[in-house]
Amino acid sequence: MDKGAIQHEMNHALGFIHEQARSDRDRFVKIMWEHIVAGEQGNFGKVNSKNLGLPYDYSSVMHYGAYDFSSTPGKPTIVPVPDPSIPIGQREGLSNLDVAKINKLYKCNCCSSVLPKPKGSFSSINYPSPYPNNSHCLWLIRIRRSKIFLQFEAFDLQRSSDCSSDYIKIYNGNSKNSPVLLDKYCGKGPLPSLVASGSTMLVEFASDESITATGFRASYNRVNCGATFRDSKGVITSPNYPKKYPKNRACFWVITSPAGYKISLKMLSFELEYSDRCIFDYLLIHDGSHPMSPAVGPYCGTEKVADFTSTGNFVLVEFHSDLVWELPGFVMSYTFAR
Questions:
Q1: What global pTM score does this model have?
Q2: Which of 29, 121, 295, 338 has the most CB atoms in a 10 Å sphere around its CB?
Q3: Ligand-binding site membership of 136 (annotated)
Q4: Which residues are catalytic?
C-alpha cells in the first residue's frame, strides 16, 4: 500500500474530509455525475465545512483522482476548473497544505512543510535574524522521478559538543528511519552540498532553550544522477558506463572526507563528445562541494584529465550531456589522503 494511502486514512481519523467534499468545491472542480458508478454517488457529496481558512488543495492526499468510481473507462468523475489539466489524486504523501491543516486544527506551533516543486529554497525561522529557542522543524523535499541536489548558501548555528544543542540533520529518504546523509551538524559553515539517492530528502532542524544564532538558508534542485560519497575510496562513472551515457543529463557527485583529509581523483577512462570550449558534453571538477566552487575543466573529447587533489575536504564532480551525441563516458577513482 502506498504511504499516501495510509496517510489518507490517518487524516480521516484526525477529522479531515475528502478535499473535493469541501463546501466551496464547486469553484474548483466539476463533478461529472453521469460518469459515476451507480450507487457510488454518495462518495461525491458536499459537506458544510469551514475549511480552516486555507485554500483549496488540488494536490492534497485527501483529494480523489480524476477517474475514481468511473463507470466508463476514460471518462472522468472529477474535472478541475477552469483548467482540467491540473493533476489530482496523488498518493505520494501529505501536501504542504495538508501539513498546514493538521497544524492549524490541532494548534501545533510547528514550522514543518513539504517542498514538492522541482527546485526551491527554505530557511530557518526568522532568517537572517536569529531563530527562536525550542524549535523543531522538518522540511520534506519530494520531487518526481529525479534525484535531489541540496546546497547551503549560509549556515550559522550555536556550536555545542556533539551538536547536542542546536543542529541540522539530513536523511536520505522521507522519514527519520531513512539512512542519514548528514549527521547532526552545527557551528558555522561551510556545510557540504548533498545528493539524495532518490526523489525524497528530509531536513531536520532543532534548537534548545539557550542562545541562538542567525540560522541557515538552503536551496535545492533536481538532477538526473549522482550520489554523496563518504567512504575512504571509491569509483565514479558516467551513467550506464561502460555503455554509452544517455542524452540530456545533469549529474552531481559530492565527495566528503573527514577533517584533515584531502581528496585525490584519478581519471581511468575518458571519452565525451568533443566541442570547442567543451560547451556541449563536459566534465567539471570543483575544489569544494558547490557549483560555484573553483573548478578545473571543463573537459571533453578524449583529452587527458590531470590527477586532482582538493585543498579541503569537499569535491563536487559535475557532468552534463546535451541532446545530440552519446559516447562511452568516463570512470574515475578517488581516495582520501593526508
A1: 0.79
A2: 29
A3: no
A4: 9
